[in-house]
């Protein structure tokens, strides 16, 4: 095992971002904007075969390595989809974060959809950028962009340099931390980014299908003492927040107008509801997914649950209307089976049965919320982590590729909220998904991280 002092991660502390998207969305323009035109031109030697061009940049104090994938599609001659996929595949593997651009003026295209669908399956976090949004021209495309399922789009104009502050805000959670708790608090997107005041409260969201009892739960939780606070910095315009304390711990319920808006059975509104859910999820630390005990964990419930986990939030499932359930044991068994089958990637998601209407077991819900919040914030020491890693690789060594065993040199936790780990691997691209899953499950069990999403990044380490 490599000693921490000689670990190669010291040189890798800048954030690597890959700019991706279909042709003509403005990738090169953004690259030049971030890197500075001169450097980009110098790097772009004609006739030289290259996978991509990369250059250092500094944006609002963040050190970046920017990878541009523009123009690479010309190197291949099969379908555009296949070419785009190939050109970006490696860039994304190499990147800490991918910036996916769309052209908000021309709207979301089938190619964007195709690309997004593929990206959603990957591990690299994606920030969706709606480009060409100067002077509001991009607004229709901006709204469409929610459909891509890559989170809330950040409107920018690469050409005019607009929206860069918002881009910085979106990047902050991925910046290798100085490892101070305060810096991390401030860097949390739920807290509104760098300039927002540090909010120590647990930010809670309540989501779920219509009629499961969200409003009832909200009212039961906050009772008469609720404080309604209006729109504020860092939050969406129509968002409100309710603040109170539970067992002396501050808790802040983020809510949106969208949640109270009753959705109709209209295709467009369905999509809107998803966009609303995403927005509220992104503001939260812990998300309570309310499900109806009479219609347990259907397709839509599971979609929302996956969204919460994909966004790296802590999830608690509240099984509401428990007062009218007759077969309680059977219902619980059903929930367990569904979680096992459908959300197997995160074992130990807390499930609380309750009645919002009768105000039963609300304390159990809040206890579960604070417990999972602690896990979500947990940090594992580097020595424990590497001791654990040594045990795991000894029990099951990584496979060999072309006769040479893949070596995992070192592991470290790069951030909490959610727990995110980096592995330095001799051949990161060849490390099978199944092996990464083996490690994630191992970390969860051995290092006590039940029920929260865990991110595992692989990086190249000699
Ligand atoms: P790429 O193929 O994705 O790298 O796209 P380019 O960077 O070459 O840009 C494609 C076209 O979009 C060029 O004509 C750019 O000038 C234009 N473009 C890029 N960014 C913006 C922007 O923010 N606003 C507008 N209106 N046009 C832009
Ligand atoms: P929302 O659309 O998710 O906000 O759901 P509501 O809070 O409006 O509740 C939908 C319906 O379920 C209402 O008729 C509530 O009275 C009912 N309801 C909510 N919680 C419970 C509960 O714990 N038990 C029972 N039996 N009904 C409930």
From TrEMBL:
Associates with the 50S ribosomal subunit. GTP 2 binds at residues 208-215, 255-259, 320-323. Belongs to the TRAFAC class TrmE-Era-EngA-EngB-Septin-like GTPase superfamily. EngA (Der) GTPase family. GO terms for molecular function: GTP binding. The gene is engA. HAMAP family: GTPase_Der (MF_00195). The lineage of its organism: Bacteria, Pseudomonadati, Pseudomonadota, Alphaproteobacteria, Rhodospirillales. GO terms for biological process: ribosome biogenesis. The keyword DNA-binding does not apply. Gene3D superfamilies: 3.30.300.20, P-loop containing nucleotide triphosphate hydrolases (3.40.50.300). GTPase that plays an essential role in the late steps of ribosome biogenesis. Pfam families: KH_dom-like (PF14714), MMR_HSR1 (PF01926). InterPro entries: G_ENGA, GTP-bd, GTPase_Der, KH_dom-like, KH_dom-like_a/b, P-loop_NTPase, Small_GTP-bd. This is GTPase Der. Keywords: GTP-binding, Nucleotide-binding, Repeat, Ribosome biogenesis. GTP 1 binds at residues 21-28, 68-72, 131-134. The keyword Repeat applies. Residues 15-179, 202-377 form the EngA-type G domain.
């Amino acid at each position: 095992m490599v000693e921490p002092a000689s670990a190669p991660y010291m040189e890798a502390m800048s954030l690597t971002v890959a700019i991706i998207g279909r042709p003509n969305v403005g990738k090169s323009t953004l690259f030049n904007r971030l890197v500075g035109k001169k450097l980009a031109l110098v790097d772009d030697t004609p006739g030289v075969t290259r996978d991509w061009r990369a250059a250092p940049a500094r944006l609002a104090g963040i050190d970046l390595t920017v990878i541009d994938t523009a123009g690479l599609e010309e190197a291949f001659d099969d379908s555009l989809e296949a070419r785009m996929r190939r050109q970006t595949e490696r860039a994304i593997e190499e990147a800490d974060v991918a910036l996916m651009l769309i052209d908000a003026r021309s709207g979301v295209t089938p190619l964007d959809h195709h690309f997004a669908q593929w990206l959603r399956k990957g591990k690299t976090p994606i920030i969706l950028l709606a480009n060409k949004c100067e002077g509001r021209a991009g607004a229709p495309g901006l709204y469409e962009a929610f459909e891509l399922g890559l989170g809330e789009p950040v409107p920018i104009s690469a050409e005019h340099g607009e929206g860069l502050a918002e881009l910085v805000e979106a990047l902050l959670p991925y910046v290798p931390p100085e490892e101070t708790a305060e810096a991390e608090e401030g860097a949390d997107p739920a807290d509104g980014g760098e300039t927002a005041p540090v909010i120590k409260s647990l930010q809670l969201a309540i989501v779920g299908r219509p009629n499961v009892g969200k409003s009832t739960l909200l009212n039961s939780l906050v009772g008469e003492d609720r404080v309604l606070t209006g729109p504020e910095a860092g939050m969406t315009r129509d968002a409100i927040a309710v603040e109170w304390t539970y067992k002396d711990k501050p808790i802040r319920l983020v809510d949106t107008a969208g949640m109270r808006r009753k959705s109709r059975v209209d295709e467009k509104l369905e999509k809107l509801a998803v966009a609303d859910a995403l927005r509220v999820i992104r503001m939260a630390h812990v998300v309570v997914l309310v499900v109806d005990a009479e219609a347990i964990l259907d397709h839509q419930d599971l979609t929302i649950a996956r969204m919460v986990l994909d966004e790296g939030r802590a999830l608690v499932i509240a099984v509401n209307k428990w007062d009218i359930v007759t077969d309680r044991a059977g219902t619980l068994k059903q929930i367990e089976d569904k979680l096992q089958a459908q959300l197997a990637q995160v074992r130990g998601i807390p499930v609380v049965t309750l009645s919002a209407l009768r105000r039963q077991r609300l304390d159990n819900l809040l206890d579960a919320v604070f417990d999972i919040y602690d896990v979500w914030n947990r940090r594992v020491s580097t020595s424990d982590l590497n001791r654990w890693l040594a045990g795991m690789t000894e029990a099951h060594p990584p496979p060999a590729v072309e006769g040479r065993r893949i070596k995992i040199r070192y592991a470290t936790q790069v951030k909490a909220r959610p727990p995110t780990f980096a592995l330095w691997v001799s051949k990161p691209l060849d490390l099978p998904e199944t092996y990464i899953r083996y490690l994630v499950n191992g970390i969860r069990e051995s290092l006590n991280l039940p029920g929260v999403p865990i991110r595992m990044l692989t990086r190249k380490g000699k």
